[in-house]
């Protein structure tokens, strides 16, 4: 059964399980990265044979395989992917930043240019579950940003990629797709091989080995984030439907055994009813073992004196997903400081954001929403700034700059300005 606690019995920072299982992973990943960096395609193919059942005849997916994938996926799902893609595109198009230029003083021009990255690598898992939604969420913001080339890697079990992944990739606009997964695929993207090009940034979720590989190659390339187990925090009052609340909690618990689902409520009666509903609904799930482990080990129901206290706890926790299951959620929106994505009202389950609404589902976990943001168009651009002064404009500030530099003991800095006026 899920634990029911009073808010005074627990520290907000400890509400979610922050543990990750990574024993022995670091050294294994280091060896894989080194091997692929040195031996390139040869090492990559060896790992494909070892982990995916066979080494593919060709690492890159062909146009014919894309066509076969569309033939294998029913039209209803293809159309749903297209609708979701439209929603995601509409939302993320509003995030596009513009370059700017300032010319307020005579002879002085400063500005900032926003430019897209050249190449981005997208990792797509291929383990116990298949996530075409992640293809859309990671690729479409990059396309909107103007990234020149998007390279996707994903495991090909016995040489085959799940066709819905290929269909999603085509709809999202992925440029090239390769049959490689795990830490070895991250190595290929980071260092390049004879077949897979080196990229500038790697995005996308993965298991502990993928996460560790992204962590180790950061600096060689950029990465999106190191995501932890999935989290959902629900704030609900006594008017909420316990059946709905339990279903929303289980939507995250079924991800993996380390996932965390937490309810904060001011109603002891709702707490007890949700606890019973969780037990009833668990038995209906195909992934019952995973969800039950998550609920029993990491799940919690916390009773507070009022909803205001619940909101304060939510800010302290900084959850990945926050549901405000209240009749008047917008009354509280301005009080939310720390959350990855907020779902407003009683008819906005977190799954709406996973697949369809438009906001991104790649979100900060482990309390990092205190200082980081969801994946966005911003993640696929970089900025540089520029400055232009005429000699006349420089003369007006030369003494100030030189004096500033002298205070730091950097006389060559000062002279680089004053030398222009020695004559």
UniProtKB/TrEMBL annotation:
Pathway: Amino-acid biosynthesis; L-histidine biosynthesis; L-histidine from 5-phospho-alpha-D-ribose 1-diphosphate: step 9/9. Binds 1 zinc ion per subunit. Zn(2+) binds at residues 252, 255, 354, 413. Pfam families: Histidinol_dh. Its EC number is 1.1.1.23. Its cofactor is Zn(2+). GO terms for molecular function: histidinol dehydrogenase activity; NAD binding; zinc ion binding. Keywords: Amino-acid biosynthesis, Histidine biosynthesis, Metal-binding, NAD, Oxidoreductase, Zinc. Substrate binds at residues 230, 252, 255, 321, 354, 408, 413. The active site is at 320 (proton acceptor), 321 (proton acceptor). NAD(+) binds at residues 123, 184, 207. It catalyses: L-histidinol + 2 NAD(+) + H2O = L-histidine + 2 NADH + 3 H(+). GO terms for biological process: L-histidine biosynthetic process. NCBIfam families: hisD. Catalyzes the sequential NAD-dependent oxidations of L-histidinol to L-histidinaldehyde and then to L-histidine. This is Histidinol dehydrogenase. It comes from Aminipila terrae.
């Amino acid at each position: 059964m899920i634990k029911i606690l009073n808010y005074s019995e627990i520290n907000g920072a400890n509400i979610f399980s922050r543990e990750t299982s990574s024993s022995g992973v670091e050294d294994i990943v280091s060896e894989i990265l080194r091997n692929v960096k040195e031996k390139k395609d040869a090492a990559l193919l060896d790992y494909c044979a070892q982990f995916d059942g066979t080494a593919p005849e060709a690492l890159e997916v062909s146009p014919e395989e894309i066509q076969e994938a569309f033939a294998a996926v029913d039209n209803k799902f293809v159309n749903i992917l297209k609708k979701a893609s439209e929603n995601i595109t509409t939302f993320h198009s509003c995030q596009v930043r513009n370059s700017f230029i300032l010319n307020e003083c005579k002879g002085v021009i400063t500005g900032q240019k926003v430019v897209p990255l050249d190449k981005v690598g997208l990792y797509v898992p291929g383990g116990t579950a298949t996530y075409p939604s992640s293809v859309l969420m990671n690729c479409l913001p990059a396309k909107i940003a103007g990234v020149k080339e998007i390279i996707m890697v994903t495991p090909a079990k016995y040489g085959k990629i799940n066709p819905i992944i290929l269909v999603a990739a085509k709809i999202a606009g992925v440029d090239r797709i390769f049959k490689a997964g795990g830490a070895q695929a991250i190595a290929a993207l980071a260092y390049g091989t004879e077949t897979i090009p080196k990229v500038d940034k790697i995005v996308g979720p993965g298991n502990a080995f993928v996460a560790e590989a992204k962590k180790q190659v950061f600096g060689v390339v950029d990465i999106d984030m190191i995501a932890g187990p999935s989290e959902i925090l629900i704030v609900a009052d006594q008017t909420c439907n316990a059946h709905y609340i339990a279903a929303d909690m289980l939507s995250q618990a079924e991800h993996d055994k380390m996932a965390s689902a937490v309810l904060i409520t001011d109603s002891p009666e709702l707490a007890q009813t949700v606890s019973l509903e969780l037990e009833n609904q668990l038995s209906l799930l195909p992934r019952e073992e995973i969800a039950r482990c998550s609920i029993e080990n990491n799940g919690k129901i916390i009773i507070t004196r009022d909803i205001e206290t619940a909101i304060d706890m939510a800010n302290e926790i900084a959850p990945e997903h926050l549901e405000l299951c209240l009749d008047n959620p917008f009354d509280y929106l301005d009080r939310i400081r720390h959350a990855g994505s907020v779902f407003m009202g009683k008819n906005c389950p977190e799954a709406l954001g996973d697949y369809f609404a438009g906001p991104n589902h790649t979100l900060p976990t482990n309390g990092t929403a205190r200082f980081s943001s969801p994946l966005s168009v911003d993640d696929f651009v970089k900025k540089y700034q520029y400055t232009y002064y005429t000699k006349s404009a420089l003369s007006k500030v030369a003494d100030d700059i030189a004096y500033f530099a002298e205070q730091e003991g950097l006389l060559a800095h000062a002279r680089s300005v004053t030398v222009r006026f020695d004559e």
